[in-house]
Amino acid sequence: MVTLYSTHCSSSSKAAASNSSIGFYNYHNNLPISSRKFGSQKISLTPICNAIRMQDGAVAASPSKIENETPLKKLKDGILSVRPPEEQKDTFDFDSNKDKSTVSITVVGASGDLAKKKIFPALFALYYEGFLPEHFTIFGYARSKMTDTELRNMVSKTLTCRIDKRENCGEKMEEFLERCFYHSGQYDSQENFAELDKKLKEHEAGRFPNRLFYLSIPPNIFINAVRCASLSASSAHGWTRVIVEKPFGRDCESSAALTRSLKQYLKEDQIFRIDHYLGKELVENLSVLRFSNLIFEPLWSRQYIRNVQFIFSEDFGTEGRGGYFDHYGIIRDIMQNHLLQILALFAMETPVSLDAEDIRNEKVKVLRSMRPLQLDDVVVGQYKSHTKGGTTYPGYTDDKTVPKDSLTPTFAAAALFIDNARWDGVPFLMKAGKALHTRSAEIRVQFRHVPGNLYNKNFGSYLDQATNELVIRVQPDEAIYLKINNKVPGLGMRLDASNLNLLYSARYLKEIPDAYERLLLDAIEGERRLFIRSDELDAAWSLFTPVLKELEQKKIVPENYPYGSRGPIGAHYLAARYKVRWGDLA
Length: 586
Ligand SMILES: NC(=O)C1=CN([C@@H]2O[C@H](COP(=O)(O)OP(=O)(O)OC[C@H]3O[C@@H](n4cnc5c(N)ncnc54)[C@H](OP(=O)(O)O)[C@@H]3O)[C@@H](O)[C@H]2O)C=CC1
Ligand SMILES: O=C1O[C@H](COP(=O)(O)O)[C@@H](O)[C@H](O)[C@H]1O
Prior knowledge:
disordered N terminus, EC 1.1.1.49, 18 helices, oxidoreductase, alpha/beta, binds the ligand O=C1O[C@H](COP(=O)(O)O)[C@@H](O)[C@H](O)[C@H]1O, disulfide bond, binds NADPH dihydro-nicotinamide-adenine-dinucleotide phosphate, 9-stranded mixed β-sheet, 7-stranded mixed β-sheet
């Protein structure tokens, strides 16, 4: 085990990491949190403020950020040793305590759906893979009365083992569950959070304490919980971070008010606004695909790209979440966040580095170059009950928690535009819906016609369908494929469209981690790249707020579509207006 306390410039990180046995650390958090392999050596990693994780797994930091805060010493090419900040040295002896750090992770709303379905399983997966720090404690916090044992029983029902790594899984689950505890309390009670603080301290005894709170609760209680957690249960010496789940407001005003309230108790760098689509493998891969392959970046503009499509569909309705959903609708639930975030990553200019702030700066620029969505460029729909094969599927308003006369869209299609030099005039189409015929999420890039194509006559009237299309299938069956034209073998000259296909399940035997695993690990490591900064959020809301208000004020009636169908026909007319065919229907 090599433990070298250093950090380095991101540009040289790959070389340094592949070189060797060198780990990249700083002293900010004083926290060895996990171990990873570089070459053949296992090293312990310590999170770096403002750190970025490199493709090869190395962790790098922005030297500019660190230079301001910590004295640096150049060790060798591109590698800098970082001394602990003076004030920390006074209160904490890093050298003798570096192995004594701990992270307490409190899942606020532990009795809820998301906690059971995603957060606890992701924490277990991280533990199983050896990514959690050596010393950690997990606390569930909610109003429900539960003992530690009851929490463990509840959590154990949702844990699964990696298909490719089943050895010792039962044992690992036991070990993990022993580190899980529960405290029952109100979300607006400082006293109850102070009791939690006391319990956390018992577990942290003698160690350098860092705390992560995951707010897995309905948005109307975010602020109370943040107030109480920050006033009564912040870490006295280490960092305190709060993961905030969406929705971050429901328009510009409520989002800004939420941010203002959060900032009464937390600094921006303590707030981790989660958009779990940013943690999906293929979304992470978008930048790699674009910026590490010479063949794509030169084509990435209005000159070669005809349109880009972001498509999300689910083959189930709002079952069980109708109460929440009716207040938000599909535009706020999926488009304003998940699809727009992917669009920003897709369309941004090359960032200066992979540093979180550099990436987020570029995303904000794209968002601010976009035209606010116009009512004419939106189609909304709502699913109705449908009977198929003897089964009746309920309509949206059949849900008891949804008002019978609800106009909330469960489907929307939209055409957006980026008014900058790269993308002028290119339609960016979005389509998102619940209770459709299939579950999928994909990005489709349709390229222009080949000018003066020698083979045009072979395509006849199907010229549009003969253009290249790049598809990034985010889920399910993660894949990247490129539609090309080729000759059908034989003596004639018949052309065919085929796919050059990178299907992840065929190429990699490893199971793809869940988005929540990556994001939880990043939050523990202080890596902000995949979390939403407040100015990104403002820009995102500015694009959708006017149209959302107009839809509500004008009481626009959504077009009905049957449960399990391909959605309202209006989506085709919208696309056709911009001479586009939805790629998923071709
Ligand atoms: N579920 C999902 O798939 C997704 C959820 N999210 C977001 O994550 C957060 C949590 O979601 P989810 O787990 O589904 O939420 P739940 O409705 O399951 O709520 C979580 C917990 O909060 C407490 N709670 C619920 N309603 C209230 C209330 N009105 N007042 C006080 N406490 C309440 C309950 O715990 P107790 O009664 O024990 O205190 C409940 O177990 C939300 O912000 C949601 O929008 C985001 C993406 C997906
Ligand atoms: O944020 C949300 O996402 C889920 C879809 O997530 P996925 O990872 O399963 O694709 C969606 O069902 C939910 O309505 C929305 O709030």
